[in-house]
Predict the 3D structure of the following.
Amino acid sequence: MITASKPATRAGAAAGSASRRGRHRPLRTWIIAVTAYVIALIFAAPYLEMLLMAVRPNDELGLATIFPKHFTFSNFTTLWSSGLGGSIGTSLQIAAGATVIVLLVALPAAYCTARRRFRGRGAFLLLVLATQMFQPAAMLVGIQREFTDFGLPPTLSLIVINAGFNLAFAVWILNAFFSSIPVELEEASMVDGLGRIGALLRITLPLAAPGIVTALIFTFISAWNEFLVALTLSLGQSPSQQPLTVAINQYIGEYSVDWGHLFAAGLVATVPVIILFVFIERRVVSGLTAGAVK
Amino acid sequence: MPALRRLAPLLWLSPAVALIGVVVLWPVVVMVQSSFQQIGGEGFVAGYNGTANYAHLFDEPDFVSVLLRTLIWVVAVVAVTMLISLGLAQLFHQRFPGRRVTRWALIIPWAASVMMSALIFKWALDPNVGVINVILHHIGVVQQLGSNQADWLGNPTSALIWMMAVAVFVSLPFTTYAILSGLQGIPGDVYEAAAIDGATSWRSYLAVTLPLLRPAILVATLINVINVFNSFPIIWEMTRGGPGYETATTTIYMIDLKEGDVGQSASMSVINFLLVIVIVLIYLGSTRWKEQVDR
């Protein structure tokens, strides 16, 4: 696995470069560092701009200045009268619901494919991999017609749809984690009297915890951020019942945009997700690319 | 009991198969079916329509230009993303103080919803007060705020270029991370061997690093092609595909058609779908994916 081999190679490469170019290193390091700081700032800049816009007083919206002259928090306090609390609730329901379903469905599938060799195993993993090539946008008409026929409330439909499209990531990353846990460890604890289920719960699951957390957070974030299917299925609902990504668009009118509220709401929607993402930063790539490089 | 044991995997896998079936596979069937039906904007099925939806679609005056634009959009965005990411990954692979924090900044556009990022850029490109225009005005690129020149999103060509830039911007974090994890998988002694052989750093990058990065580049390109092809929020929030359909890709076009003619929209989706598959197959064929995996 990529994560497992990382510390060793990083240390090896560092030792190599230190011995080779010992004296040049400080200057070279600082040039690299400053370049990286500038690039990091560029990546953060649009979101810092969002913050600047959210705290800019309305009467300064027409000024062509980079920084506002005064700061206000009124955009955040008046946000809630437009039903934003309800939208947050809806988004939370969708993201949490999808996460729970993904976990319940992906855990047994990933464990089974990691531990046992049976007919159809390869076909199943290929099916899961294929779903990663599918995007909701590519089959929106089909999704809309199918789920309208079901007649479920939009929130419930969105839970199921988001779960389905994030299943592949969870299955692959959990499969990799389960495969990396030695079977002998489970067998030894079974002999010690834990039993099969006990071994699974006390030994295997805790060892796979980093993978489980990564799958959880990744599903939560992508369901929270999903826009197109949410827009299609929750059209015509009142803003407080729409998920956040859709409800935010209520601040965009035909002729004018309420930028202050738009970005205050955007900040509320974005900051928690960025913090969550930091936790899975180092593992998320292996989940997205694991199936394809195997 | 042995028969039961053989059936056990089915039990463990069936929830996953059912979920994939309902959410991913069945919509494809419904979509293909809809593309041969006559369906109005409100979703009422008026009957079987043969290939008329496809015939109408091919007759649309905008159809060919939308297809071409989609192709340019995908190729340009993915190619530029890959090139910049190769450089960024090389940079963030070095050791320097504060690397962890800078990497956190790098993931922000990945964690944030693409819709929010698109809206920020739409605001920043506002002809009168948008921050990008204010900065461009300061450094003398934009002569006058509020002028036609500052109205980047009002002109199809400049709008498309700016939206491509946003698409590249939001694709960079994942791509850079994918290449970074590829770099971390390359053992350090490979470079030492190259250095002993007298290879300069640029030569050892071309001869050693790049070939070893092939699997990572391959996967990142594939995932990007699929994402960029179906990318919707950027164009939707910044221009809605307008003026007319002059900045629309097939995905935007399909969604716009859905308002009035679901059947025709479905046929656009089917073509969109086939195009993605064809592009992926061509890409895999041209990169000799099979050898890569078998090795």
